[in-house]
């Protein structure tokens, strides 16, 4: 259940109630692909890092340890010891990004597992069953993630099939939620808008899937090769056709600047591996801009990484020490870096919500876009 509390321009401040707790939006969902954040961050740490929602990967968990194993362990919440909301993606993106060999039919997709080449079939029903076994708060519909750019006629056929798949997802999820032994009978379903960078196809597809009255809607197939401006133009084209009373999720995005721009255009939820992936390689986001911790200039710098940050890393360690850890490939470097970046992202969302609460988001957006995108 989504409640729009306030709006400034297109930017929205809301609350999203789920069976696992209420999410204050706009929010960033921290990506724990295989039921853990890469970089040695536990579910206990995530609470202190202000994480509201964790995102886990259907395809990876289906392959290892197996969704049947997680079901036997009581579902993802029990398995990970994380009791706030969890969103599981459908596996669709991995099918199209990892599988070198795949065959798409109306029933679904047959593809080779990226680990051992074993043939796997996944369609709408299979994706829903796996996600039901995981017991996540929010399940994503199974869709085809179209490359950018894609031919217009192929994109048109693809979104028509994705809409048919979505109707099957909805039917299967309703059936699974009614089963007496289902882990989460309140599991929600989000549909995914596709259409490459063709505004007319995006709008048509959004209108078709909005008619299915789902729990939320995502914009998929962006941040996969198009320019940032093309992404922003696509959001602007689609946003007026997204239901006002449902959460809106921009999949796989992005940098702090992308988030500021997305909120400005009416997006409520974001996810991206960027904060954790960049952190593991020494690229850290701060309130002064982006720091590359391998730089020589930090060698004897005794100041905290970010003097305006309250995270455990900034409260306890110097830039010089962090640089040293990264230079010697010490595992602790990754943990401290990821800890900081996740705290930074979740604090950025907190400040965005505060600005929306006070009607000052326009000024906040104008102030921080030029700062947060620059390399120091």
TrEMBL record:
Protein's GO biological process: tRNA queuosine(34) biosynthetic process
Amino acids binding substrate: 89-93, 143, 194, 221
Residues that hold Zn(2+) according to the record: 309, 311, 314, 340
Annotated active site: 89, 271
Pathway: tRNA modification; tRNA-queuosine biosynthesis
Name of one Pfam family that matches: TGT
Alphabetical list of HAMAP family matching this protein: Q_tRNA_Tgt
Keyword field contains Iron-sulfur: no
Domain tRNA-guanine(15) transglycosylase-like: 10-369
InterPro entries in UniProt: ArchSynthase1/Queuine_TRR (IPR050076), TGT (IPR004803), TGT-like_sf (IPR036511), tRNA_ribo_trans-like (IPR002616)
Free-text comment on the cofactor: Binds 1 zinc ion per subunit.
Catalytic activity entry: 7-aminomethyl-7-carbaguanine + guanosine(34) in tRNA = 7-aminomethyl-7-carbaguanosine(34) in tRNA + guanine
Region (RNA binding): 252-258
Function: Catalyzes the base-exchange of a guanine (G) residue with the queuine precursor 7-aminomethyl-7-deazaguanine (PreQ1) at position 34 (anticodon wobble position) in tRNAs with GU(N) anticodons (tRNA-Asp, -Asn, -His and -Tyr). Catalysis occurs through a double-displacement mechanism. The nucleophile active site attacks the C1' of nucleotide 34 to detach the guanine base from the RNA, forming a covalent enzyme-RNA intermediate. The proton acceptor active site deprotonates the incoming PreQ1, allowing a nucleophilic attack on the C1' of the ribose to form the product.
Any single Gene Ontology cellular-component annotation: cytosol
Subunit-level organization: Homodimer. Within each dimer, one monomer is responsible for RNA recognition and catalysis, while the other monomer binds to the replacement base PreQ1.
EC assignment: 2.4.2.29
Gene: tgt
Protein name per Swiss-Prot or TrEMBL: Queuine tRNA-ribosyltransferase
GO molecular function annotation: metal ion binding; tRNA-guanosine(34) queuine transglycosylase activity
